[in-house]
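Example 311, ligand phosphoric acid mono(formamide)ester.
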Amino acid sequence: MQNYLSIQDIVSLPAWVAEARTLKKEPQRYHTLGKGKTLGLLFFNNSLRTRLSTQKAAMNLGMEVMVMNFGNEGWTLEFEDGTVMDQGAAEHVQEAARVVSQYCDIIGIRAFASLKDREKDEAEQVLQGFRKYATVPLLNLESSLSHPLQALADAITLEEHKTTPHPKVVLSWAPHPRALPHAVANSFVEMMRLQQADFVITHPKGYELDPRVTRGIPIEYEQEKALAGADFVYVKNWSSYTDYGKVLTQDPAWMLTAGKLGHARFMHCLPVRRNVVVADTVLNSPQSLVIEQANNRTYAAQLVLKKLLEQ
Ligand code: CP
């Protein structure tokens, strides 16, 4: 594996999940593997879990970590080749990526979708710009289209908590006041393709994800019907894909409540808006796995960093 940019970079999900669970039991086992190596984390958007869990993972492997927030610290970067740079951007990714590659052995990048221009978002300008010009391995910390570290952590959590070899897993859309990207949902769907599970997606009409991502996966527009008999309910908001980046409805009837959850376990990537996306009673119940999901972010990142260091 040269880079970890999407779920497609996972060689074997069951083997990776098993190895991550072994690392979780003994996080310091490879504490010298990354000695003398530096991880650079470049954030073009905010973060709590990704930033701290990836730092923690690198520290467990003995790496040094440098973090840069481009929002308020770095020069504004240009990503188009051949541009006359007489506007806001002060530096081109051609120089930035090669310069950072001299300081770091692995570079992690977080750059969300703009949700304004689908074509540009799908081109993954920031991630692909660094991929083109960086000379060291790259780690996707959530890009326009995917969040593969989150999905790997979710796979670990599912494995830890499943009580049947073939559980029913539901991905349910939930309301949110702001337009959110599709990355978490996309990667969760892609990861679920690699699972032995009965997997269903539910959302209001108009919230269909990219059909290339959901091809062949059942979509049920009635949330209650989709949730019947679920073992795990993964809740996430996303904006419309067809009416790109728009909030079409904030229908509170789609919020997840304890009554709808039934006996299932609740999952969400966090951050989550209480009593908008999901009721307090769900988050405060022992059925909620959100804190454990966030814990597993460390071991997902540690596994991926270990593999990048070992190549
Ligand atoms: N789930 C997740 O990626 O959290 P942060 O945005 O806080 O990193």
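Summary: The longest strand covers residues 38-43.
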